[in-house]
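[step 3/7] inverse_fold.run input=structure_tokens len=372
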């Protein structure tokens, strides 16, 4: 058998090829430096999240919560959640707690597509303004911390952003005008902060948005008409703000809206009939406003509500008999109004408790045990 001998050129090419693979697959030195600076500004005392982040190891190989591009060795994902089913949490039997702040060095991770630092409860300080320079960022999730300050003014520069979640922090200021230029944004959650001012008039420019969760803030003004053109919007939560004025008729004509939560605002006027006749709604909460007039008698065989809450308003008149023809009504609350007359019999009234009808002027029958 003839023994094949490698030529010097072949051997040289093989060594070069292996060297290239080694270089490409190892963590970028710039990224590793940035991650170490990012780590130095944070403290996680209970779970040992950062134990794998050793200066003497490759950040693309075994660093908890870090993912890299296999070809370039650039860091693409930081995924650190304080509430997780990951083994490290299961073993500890507890959720996480982390304090400190977000070091601007994170902005040196210029290939970053996902930045998740959520539900740690103790991370404070402001979002570094330079975060808007991360042109490849698709997910920014900093929910469940103690972050203060305002949403970065130039947030609109993150043109690839699909998810922006800053919920349950201590942020203030207004929604920056540049936010409405995020043409790829699908999920926006700013719940439970101190964000004030009006919803931008061109909020409807966010044509890809399917979830807008802005409840428990200090928002003012009325519902911008531009929202009527958001054909992908399925969930809209503006509860516990200071939204005022009437509910526009167009709200009931939105194509895919299935959750509308407007409770605890300063809404006035009557309830649009289109809002209750729309068969697409699953959850509708208009409670704790100043709505008046009667409940529109527009229910039918396609009506389907998992929850319908009209409580704590100034609604008067009778409960519509057409509600008995609804396909399904799971939870109904019309308490604390000025309704009168007999409670209709049949579904859904036969499975509701007296608390659903309490504190009205002169309702009778049904679960109230009050003779008409």
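[step 3/7] decode complete -> sequence:
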């Amino acid at each position: 058998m003839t023994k094949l001998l490698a030529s010097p050129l072949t051997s040289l090419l093989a060594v070069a090829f292996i060297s290239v693979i080694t270089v490409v697959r190892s963590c970028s030195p710039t990224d590793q430096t940035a991650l170490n600076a990012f780590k130095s500004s944070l403290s996680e005392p209970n779970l040992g999240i950062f134990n794998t982040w050793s200066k003497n190891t490759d950040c693309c190989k075994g660093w908890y919560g870090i993912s890299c591009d296999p070809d370039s060795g650039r860091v693409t994902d930081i995924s650190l959640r304080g509430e997780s089913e990951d083994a490290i949490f299961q073993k500890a039997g507890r959720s996480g707690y982390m304090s400190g702040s977000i070091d601007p060095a994170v902005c040196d991770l210029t290939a970053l597509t996902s930045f998740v630092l959520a539900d740690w409860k103790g991370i404070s300080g402001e979002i570094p303004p330079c975060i808007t320079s991360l042109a490849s960022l698709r997910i920014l999730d900093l929910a469940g911390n103690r972050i203060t300050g305002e949403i970065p003014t130039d947030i609109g520069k993150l043109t690839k952003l699909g998810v922006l979640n800053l919920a349950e922090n201590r942020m203030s200021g207004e929604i920056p005008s540049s936010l409405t230029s995020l043409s790829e944004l699908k999920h926006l959650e700013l719940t439970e902060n101190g964000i004030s001012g009006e919803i931008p008039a061109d909020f409807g420019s966010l044509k890809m948005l399917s979830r807008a969760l802005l409840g428990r803030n200090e928002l003012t003004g009325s519902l911008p008409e531009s929202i009527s053109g958001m054909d992908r919007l399925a969930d809209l939560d503006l509860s516990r703000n200071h939204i005022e004025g009437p509910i526009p008729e167009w709200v009931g004509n939105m194509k895919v809206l299935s959750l509308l939560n407007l409770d605890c605002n300063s809404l006035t006027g009557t309830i649009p009939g289109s809002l209750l006749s729309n068969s697409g709604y699953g959850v509708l909460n208009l409670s704790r406003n100043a709505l008046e007039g009667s409940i529109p008698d527009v229910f039918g065989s396609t009506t389907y509500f998992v929850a319908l809450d009209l409580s704590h308003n100034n609604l008067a008149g009778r409960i519509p008999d057409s509600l008995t023809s609804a396909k399904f009504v799971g939870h109904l609350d019309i308490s604390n109004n000025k309704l009168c007359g007999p409670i209709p019999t049949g579904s859904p009234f036969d499975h509701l408790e007296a608390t659903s009808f309490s504190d009205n002027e002169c309702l009778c029958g049904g679960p109230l045990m009050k003779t008409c």
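[step 4/7] annotate
The first helix runs from residue 8 to 25.
DSSP finds four helices and 23 strands in the chain.
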